[in-house]
Each structure stands twice: as structure tokens, then as C-alpha cells.
Design goal:
mainly alpha, two-stranded antiparallel ribbon, 3 helices, elongated
């Protein structure tokens, strides 16, 4: 069995997973200070269709960890350096987008000011 090239990125992958676990902990700790519904579905028309219960915020870290797991499994079966690099890129981009979306939602519904644009 060949050594996986993605294994050399194990510290990066561990960091990305820890960031998502931290995001889930932040959601759970601040759940009481958030409104019962939050604007999660930005692709929907304005109004009630954008809103979701606050528990749905846990979808962001959960789906991101799922995407990262799928990318890691795919990288195990395809022994190509280019595909490994693409899978690492997918993991990093999914993580960044998830964290940005979560911070933006918390800035919109909370009293914190993270982004000013």
C-alpha cells in the first residue's frame, strides 16, 4: 500500500477540524443570546424563507466537517498529487466559507460588530 500524500497535511486538516469544532462550541455557548430564528438561507427571497431556527447554525460546521471527510476519503483512493492538492484546497475553501458565513450571521443578529461592510 502506498503512503498517502495527503497525510503530510495532517496538521492542517487537524487545525481545520478544530476550527469547526470551535465554531460549533461558539454556537452552543451563545445559543441563548441569539434570536430564535437566524438568516441562514441567503439564496432565498427576502423574508421568512431566509430564516431558520438557531439550531440550524450547527449545519455549517457539520457540513464542513462532512465535506472535509469526503475529500479525505477521495484522496485516499486516487493516488495523484494534483488530486491531493485539489482536495486540500477544497477543505480549506469550505472551512473559510463556513467560518465567514457563521461570523457574518452572528454579526447580523448579534450585538457584535465583526465586519463593517
Amino acid at each position: 500500500m502506498k503512503t498517502l500524500r495527503i497525510a503530510r497535511y495532517k496538521h492542517l486538516i487537524a487545525l481545520l477540524v478544530m476550527l469547526q469544532i470551535l465554531a460549533a462550541i461558539v454556537i452552543l455557548v451563545n445559543k441563548q443570546s441569539l434570536p430564535p430564528v437566524v438568516p441562514l438561507f441567503y439564496g432565498m427571497p427576502t423574508g421568512a424563507q431566509q430564516l431558520a431556527p438557531v439550531n440550524y447554525l450547527l449545519l455549517l460546521p457539520g457540513l464542513t466537517i462532512g465535506i472535509m471527510a469526503i475529500a479525505a476519503v477521495m484522496a485516499q483512493y486516487v493516488h495523484d498529487k494534483f488530486i491531493d492538492t485539489i482536495m486540500i484546497g477544497v477543505m480549506v475553501i469550505a472551512n473559510i466559507l463556513s467560518l465567514f458565513s457563521l461570523l457574518k450571521i452572528l454579526a447580523i443578529v448579534g450585538s457584535i460588530r465583526i465586519f463593517t461592510f
